[in-house]
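By convention, the token line describes the chain's fold. To illustrate:
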Amino acid sequence: MLSVSIVGGSGFGGGELLRLLLSHPHVEVRQVTSRAHLGEYVYQVHPNLRKRTQLKFINPAELGPVDVLFLALPHGESQKKINDYAVLASKIVDLSADFRLKDADMYEKWYGKPHAAPDWLSKFVYGLPELHRSEIATANYVSGIGCNATASNLALLPLIKSDLIELFDPIIIEVKVGSSESGAEGNSGSNHAERANVIRTFSSFGHRHTAEVIQEMSVKDVSLTMTAVDLVRGVLATAHARVKPGVVTKDLWKAYRTAANENPFIRVVKEQRGIYRVPEPKIVTGSNYADIGFELDETSGHVVSMCAIDNLMKGASGTALQCMNLMMGWDEMTGLDFPGLHPI
């Protein structure tokens, strides 16, 4: 059994990760930390885990060595003690934004302060398997991913990988988000209404997840806008771009089917009949799937690409577990085969 611990287990991201790890067939969860809930049973903070574990939150200073250490701390905290964490485990998966960007100047630009451990940025692989599967498989350190960036990158992936769109034209991405987004990474929050209000204060332009799209998709003229919707879990990214001359609908079908065939968690949703004919966040709730779809106006060349994910799963903890599976040489779907709920 692989021994793992979670640093910062009281937030949504840490709780969802713990839920997944407790059901993983090859993993033993040793310790979960939280200063705010020190000594409490983890199920007192994550009530869905009642009768699933008797673990209690411990002080981070009491952490012992493990095979894999998951860091589910608020942004800015992992980088301060990364050298200490590296002593405890040979493999680390960090859910926060601390090691997502490869360039220290880019980090300072988008996060507003210098990085505390810039030498570590090059040691982490960006933790989205659909983009870096082979690198993750041989990595010791894997970064977290932004949920908005994940939905945006996966919406663009078939178009960019198949060289179907004009990368120098503006790309506009509208992202609809649920209320749990503001509590997904190391922040337990207090109630859904407060979290929704936090989301509504996000800047309409210049969201920091834009940096991940720029870095991973090699695009420059891209804009992300956020809108809070009446969901607890879920992200729906709608990307607008322009295809290259001569590109028609059948070219897009080929690109999207290729993306789905190459990636076990990508599903193409573009139906002529049925209940849900386009990607819908509700359908992926609790799952690690990313549903993608598209529409092309062949006359104007305007393409719309959509991606729906559960922000706590594919946008955070589910992908973190997927990365661990790859790092250990296991089937990446191990412990992640839940398909989502319907009806919901």
